[in-house]
Amino acid sequence: MPEFEKKDCGNPSGEAGFTLTELMVTVFIMGLLATVVLVNVIGNVDQSRVQKARADIALLESSLDRYRLQMFDYPSTEQGLEALVEAPEDLPGGASYPAEGFIKRLPRDPWGNPYQYEKPGEHGAIDIYSLGADGQQGGEDLDADIGNWQ
Question: What are the tens digits of pLDDT across the range 33-61?
Answer without folding.
Answer: 998 888 877 778 888 999 999 999 999 99
